[in-house]
Specification:
The complex is a heterodimer of chains A (252) and B (116).
Chain A: E1 4-9, H1 17-30, E2 34-39, H2 47-50, H3 62-66, E3 77-78, E4 90-94, H4 100-109, H5 113-127, E5 131-135, H6 142-150, E6 153-158, H7 162-177, E7 182-190, H8 196-207, E8 210-216, H9 219-224, H10 230-233, H11 238-251
Parallel strand pairs in A: 1-5, 1-6, 2-4, 2-5, 6-7, 7-8
Antiparallel strand pairs in A: 3-4
Helix pairs in contact in A: 1-11
Chain B: H1 3-12, H2 21-26, H3 29-41, E1 44-45, H4 46-53, H5 57-70, E2 73-78, E3 89-94, H6 106-112
Antiparallel strand pairs in B: 1-3, 2-3
Classes of the chains: A alpha/beta (252), B alpha+beta (116).
C-alpha cells in the first residue's frame, strides 16, 4: 500500500503547527498506523520537544542527512514509548538539529530539494510507513512548496486573525495551482466566546475549502506547555474530540 | 493533454539548469503539471510517465527527452539490482537547480560559524 503524505503548514508562525502535527500523529498511531513526523522547519525546529526527545539522544538529524552524513532512516527515532500510553501503531520522528552551528550551516549553504524529496520516499520504504507527516517551515519557500507538491493532504492551520486570514489565502491559491488532492483547513486557538460552528462556516466560505476542525483555545493545553501529547493526556477534551475527527478523515 | 501543443510550448522555452519550486509555480500550467506529477512519483519509467500524462510510450519518451534537453528533467538508467547501467530501465526525475550559497557578507557568517 502507498503511504499517505501529509504536509502541515501555516502562513505565519505560532499557529500551533508542531503541536497539531504531534497530536495527529499520535491519534493515527492509536489506530494502528505506522507514522513518521519529519521536522522540515530547519530554521526553527520544535516538534522534538513534544515527543520529549533530548538533543543528547539525537545521534543524527535531518540536517545530517541533507549534508550526506547519514541515511535518512538513521535520523529517525522511534518515540512510541514516549507517548505515555499504549498504542498499537508506531510514531517515528526525524528531528531537525537544534545546534546553532547546524542551523547556520543550512542557512548558509542551503540544500538540494531533490535530496529531501528522495529522503522522504526512502523513509517511507525503510520504515514501512502508512503515513508520513511533514511539519513545514511557516510561510512559503522552495522546500515548503516541494512538501506541498508531493502531499496527498495539505493541512493549513490558521488562527482567527486578519493577518492569518490574508496569508492563508496565498497558500490556498498555491495549493490549488499545485493540484494538491486534499486541502483541509484547521482554525486553531479560537476564543471560546466565539460561535465555533459559525466560524467554521465563515472560514470555509471565505476560502471555498473544507474546514475540517475548529479547535478552541485551551488553557489545559497551554498549561501542558508542549511537555507531552495533549490528546493522549486529555482524550475526552473538546480539542481531542475535534482532532479525532481529523484523524478519522485521514485514516479513512 | 494536447500533445502537439505541449511539445510546441516546451520547445519554445529557454534551456535551464534545473528548476526550483518557485520556478515551477511560474511555469506554464501544462509544464508545471508535468513536473509536479514526476515529483509525486519521485522517478517515473517512460511507461509511467506516459500513464500519468495519458500519452503513448512513444509520445512520453519524445516529451521526456525534450524536457531533459531543456534542463527540466534528468534521466537515469537503472538495472534490476538498483545499480546504474546503460542497459537498465530508463527513469525520468525532476532536475532541481543546484542550491546557491546565501549571499550574505562573509564577515557575518564568520561570526556565526560555530563549527557545525
Amino acid at each position: 500500500m502507498m503511504a499517505t503524505v501529509i504536509s502541515i503548514h501555516s502562513f505565519r508562525g505560532g499557529t500551533g503547527k508542531s503541536n497539531t502535527t504531534a497530536n495527529l500523529a499520535s491519534l493515527l498511531a492509536q489506530k494502528g498506523l505506522r507514522v513518521a513526523v519529519v521536522d522540515t522547519d530547519i530554521q526553527s525546529p520544535g516538534v522534538y520537544v513534544l515527543f520529549q526527545l533530548d538533543e543528547s539522544e539525537m545521534a543524527y538529524c535531518l540536517n545530517d542527512y541533507l549534508r550526506g552524513r547519514c541515511q535518512i532512516e538513521e535520523a529517525a527515532y522511534d518515540v512510541t514509548s514516549r507517548l505515555g500510553v499504549e498504542v498499537s501503531g508506531r510514531v517515528f520522528l526525524v528531528p531537525s538539529s537544534i545546534k546553532t552551528g547546524d542551523i547556520v550551516h543550512i542557512l548558509r549553504e542551503s540544500y538540494d530539494p531533490g535530496v529531501l524529496n528522495d529522503g522522504l520516499y526512502d523513509l517511507i520504504d525503510a520504515l514501512d510507513l502508512d503515513v508520513l507527516m511533514i511539519d513545514t517551515h511557516p510561510g512559503l519557500n522552495d522546500e515548503t512548496l516541494l512538501s506541498i507538491t508531493i502531499s496527498e493532504y495539505l493541512i493549513i492551520l490558521l488562527r482567527p486573525d486578519q493577518q492569518d486570514f490574508q496569508g492563508t489565502s496565498v497558500t490556498v491559491e498555491i495549493a490549488r495551482k499545485l493540484n494538491v488532492p486534499n486541502l483541509f483547513l484547521i482554525v486553531n486557538k479560537a476564543p471560546t466566546i466565539f460561535d465555533l460552528a459559525a466560524l467554521q462556516r465563515e472560514v470555509s466560505q471565505t476560502y471555498k475549502a473544507e474546514v475540517v476542525a475548529v479547535l478552541p483555545h485551551s488553557d489545559d493545553m497551554m498549561a501542558l506547555g508542549s511537555k507531552g501529547i495533549f490528546v493522549l493526556h486529555q482524550p475526552d477534551s473538546d480539542v481531542a474530540r475535534r482532532l479525532q475527527v481529523v484523524a478519522d478523515r485521514i485514516a479513512g | 493533454m494536447d500533445f502537439a501543443a505541449v511539445l510546441e510550448m516546451v520547445g519554445r522555452l529557454d534551456e535551464v539548469e534545473g528548476v526550483t519550486m518557485l520556478n515551477v509555480y511560474e511555469l506554464p500550467e501544462g509544464l508545471a503539471h508535468i513536473l509536479t506529477e514526476v515529483m509525486r512519483g519521485r522517478s517515473l519509467t517512460v511507461a509511467e510517465f506516459g500513464e500519468v500524462l495519458s500519452l503513448t510510450a512513444v509520445q512520453a519518451e519524445q516529451l521526456g527527452d525534450l524536457l531533459v534537453r531543456k534542463g527540466f528533467l534528468q534521466t537515469r538508467q537503472q538495472m534490476d539490482d538498483g545499480a546504474d547501467g546503460e542497459a537498465g530501465t530508463k527513469f525520468y526525475r525532476v532536475q532541481f537547480e543546484r542550491p546557491k550559497r546565501r549571499n550574505m557578507s562573509s564577515a557575518v557568517w564568520d561570526k556565526l560559524d560555530l563549527g557545525g
